[in-house]
Amino acid sequence: MAKTEFKGKLIAVEGVDGSGKSTQIQLLRRWLESQRLKVFFSQWNSSELVKSATSKGKKKELLTPTTFSLIHATDFADRYDRQLAPMLKAGYIVLCDRYVFTAYVRDTVRGCDPDWVHELYSFAVKPDLTFLFKADLEVSLGRILSGRPELKFFEAGMDLHLAPTREESFKIFQGRMLEKYVEMKDEFGFTVIDANGSIEKQQSEVRKLVASQLDLSRFALPK
Fold first, then answer.
1. What domain count does the chain have?
2. What is the CA radius of gyration of the chain?
3. Overall pTM > 0.85
4. Which of 130, 143, 168, 192 could disulfide-link 18, Cβ–Cβ 3.0 to 4.6 Å?
């Protein structure tokens, strides 16, 4: 990963689908903004440049592991060039709901070569803080299904033909991803959060860690 120094700070959240990471980073975002700090938020697979192509490919179930990897890399590169790097240079706290580590685990679990995937994202800087929300698979599955009737095709890893039902496939696919995350935590310095606990307890821990590791006063908006 690149080691470019920016005035701003980058915070990323990672974890399997249903781990609660998106909820936690949104709560962190609101907390930082309530203190009138310079904050910018970005989420995975949200570039306007490629979003429609990604959506069409997923709906028609046309994406192979390689095309799945390349289209998300294109999305990230566009957001990094247009949003993340400029905001970091401008001295903002940049919050990312998923970062390159999502590709590291998801694409390699789908069969892509790890070195190839890492090279695709070699231009990206290492976050100043990366939170890994580690939840039991049953907990993650329950959270997703409490909000909608069924799992999505790629979310469940159905393209890999791991199991006959989406629930079974989800547990295998996301379980393999979770193993990869845990394997990577020391190499990339992940801060692991017990995502089985209450939303309030997790958020309290996240805020304490952010406040202790970043000089938040540096990011105050002008009065």
1. 1
2. 17
3. yes
4. 143
- Check which CATH number belongs to the domain holding 32 and give it: 3.40.50.300
Given a contact cutoff of 8 angstroms between Cβ atoms, the answer to whether 160 and 112 are in contact is no
Domain annotation covers residue 63: yes
For 200-211, the pLDDT digits (tens) are 999 999 999 999
**What element of type H or E holds 193?**
strand 191-194
Strands 9-14 and 129-134: parallel
Residue 215 tokens, joined? 């000089």
- Both tokens assigned to 200: 């309030």
- The stretches of 189-221 forming alpha helices (DSSP H) are 199-213
Can you tell me the distance from the alpha carbon of 223 to that of 216, in angstroms, rounded to the nearest whole number?
15
Per-residue pLDDT for 3 more than 80? no
Which residue pairs, CB below 8 angstroms and at least 24 apart, start in 201-205? 202/20, 202/24, 202/133, 203/24, 203/27, 203/28, 203/31
DSSP 109-170: HTT--HHHHHHHTTTSBPPSEEEEEE--HHHHHHHHHTTSSS--TTTTTGGGT--SSHHHHH
